[in-house]
Amino acid sequence: MKKVSFVTIVILSIVFMQTFAQDKIPISASMNESTIIDTLKKVQGGDTFHFPRNAGIIYNDKGRLGGWLMRGKTLPSVYDLMNLDVVQFNDLNSKYDTELKRKVFLESEEGIEMSKRLKALKGQVLKYPFYFVLPLSGYTTNNTAHAEYNLKTKTLDIEFRTNYSYYAGFINFPSLIVKCHPSITQKPFYNIISGHKYNSNIVKIPMTEKVAIKVEDNIKTLNLIVEFKLQQVKGPRLLQGISTKFFIVDKATNEIYFSL
Questions:
Q1: How far, in Å, CA of 79 to CA of 174, rounded?
Q2: How many other CB atoms sit within 10 Å of the CB of residue 207?
């Protein structure tokens, strides 16, 4: 039996580890070191998706936020956070219901301390990516989404109501407008339902037929997840950001069907 040198074993080990990391671990460039470590611990073969613990997660079908830092809050809370509105963010409007009461409270020791904490929370939240989650089929609390592959354009077409005016230069989602990969396009239109006109949109994601058939076959269990860096708030229920990644993920198994 031939002897294998120690150096050869070390080189082979490094190559194996690099190959495993590149092929098996889906890590976004926006994730920090602790998030990468958490992801490495969770992934057990195959491409699976896990939210970074501290990321802000916007569940469009539930009208609430997830993630360790913003759990239990609703979308307007992001608006209040970005504007450092202590009273609104902490649901103190009924207690401090006049401008004078709010002024006196904010100048008090308790108000100053709460302002410091909110400013620190804003700094923490903005360190991490946000995620917008949109189910690809069926009726949801805030929307009705439908996804189907377009043979002519070779794109997965995802249709939904946006509920606000169209913002040019951005991909328009419910509650979110983002700059993203130039291959992702859209087709805004007006939808008439029971005599009412609604702003709607079709987001078109380039995809091969091989991937698309798997998506269509499992459409009822899939979410579109848009990873983005929050830039600003346009209103209480509309965020603006720069998208760093699009995912299509099985909500039960966390399997990634597609990413761009």
A1: 15
A2: 19
